Amino acid sequence: MEAVQEGLTGRGLIDLQGIVKFLGQAGQLTRIKTAVEARHELAGVAHHFDGQKPVFFESVKGHKIPVLAGLYWNRQILAQLFGRPVRDLSFYFADIVAEWQKAPIQPVVVDRAPCQEVARRKFDLRTDLPIPTSGVLEGGPYVTSAVVVAKDPDTKVRNASIMRFMVTGPDRLTCQMDFGRHLRDYYERAEARGKPLEITINIGVSPAEHIAAVVPASAAPLDSDELGIASHLLGEPLKLVPAKTVGVESIANAQVVLEAECLPEIRELEGPAAEVTGYHAQPDRRWTVRVKALTRRQEPIWHHIIPGREVYNAVGLMAEASIYRTVKRLVPALQDVYLSHGGCGFYHAIIQLKKDREGIQRNAILATFAAFPSLKMVVAVDEDVNIWDPVDVEWAMATRFRPERGIILVPEAAGHELNPTTDGGIGTKMGVDATSPYPRTFRFERVQFQPVDLSKYTIEG
Fold this sequence. Notes:
The chain is of the alpha+beta class and about 450 residues long. The chain has helices at about 1-10, 15-25, 40-45, 75-80, 90-100, 125-130, 180-190, 205-215, 225-235, 310-330, 360-370, 390-400, 405, and strands at about 30, 55, 65-70, 110, 120, 140-145, 145-150, 160, 165-170, 170-175, 195-205, 240, 250, 255-270, 275, 280, 285-295, 300-305, 335-340, 350-355, 375-380, 405-415, 425-435. It is about 25% helix and about 25% strand. The strands form five sheets. Strands 5, 6, 7, 8, 9, 10, 11, 14 and 17 form a nine-stranded antiparallel β-sheet that branches. Strands 19-20-21-23-22 form a five-stranded mixed β-sheet, sandwiched between helices. The model is unreliable at about 1-5 (pLDDT under 50).
């Protein structure tokens, strides 16, 4: 594949420095030159640009490190980074995962790396790094963009994941470990032995490592090193470097790395936290992390993810690919999948079908729920409906959905524990059949217009 051969490396996009340069030259970067406070003000400014160009804060009060926000909140710009049409992006990621599954390119461990140009064992996370507090009700500053690297306590296979960390002291963090994730499985096995789980918290990685870290568990089993997916996206083996104080590697081109351990049997206050749902995760006593060392580049860029579209895209693009691959094998009539922004990139899937017989839409809806258990709603539409246009999807629901026969309810099903409509992750899922009858009769044929080439017309205004 041409894109894999070149990858991000061939485009000079292996780190945030290259990405900021690329975005600036492409006219796809908003620069904030006025100094801002990391607490509330930075996120308040960034929120005004949600879904537009990424925002580069050149000056954060009290810090020398600039901050990049919004890297993932615009799919068109993310597609430019990968050199792909935006509509092909999720399919591209699906192809990359499939290629990795067949012939993985393993990461390589090097002796020296940019992420360790500066190494400190004495530090204060609260003052040494420009860690923002986004929501006005949040419990403190949050590390939101980190790729966490850990090793299976038994097999030593690496795992990559993304999770939130609240800063609670000079070397102390509290975090949320979602149920069912590989990292939590690692931790619980280490804790059962009375041992901490060593991790590296890698901030400011390239999109390759970020995408690898959000691949669903169904596509990256427990015994596979999913960081290899980043190698395929980069077009060369991902470089790792041994950490200085823990037995886990760091991502060589990260901007900042916190070498840390998740402590056994200790729970401390975490939250409130601005979450993917658009609500707050309630404060509770959660997992505790002790940071043993801080390493970074000489001139790093801090990467911050703002709750909103950025999270929806970062998760949704990879999940769409996984859902498509899984459901397509069972229901060949599937044409495309979109996890909507209104559904937080987690809870609402719109699936497009080219029906070849009646009833296949119900199979596809149930298969989609099975492929991505976090979902709460699935809407099935025909191939003539634009699944990325909420107006077109609403039109299909208004003119093709029949409530007396088109609703599928799946009660007491396992979902996503952060969705406030569930009871500890258990709730009812709803499928909506907004497809026309098969075969499609004239009354369900859309009005069509003659195709024209506007370049042949003289147009003013």
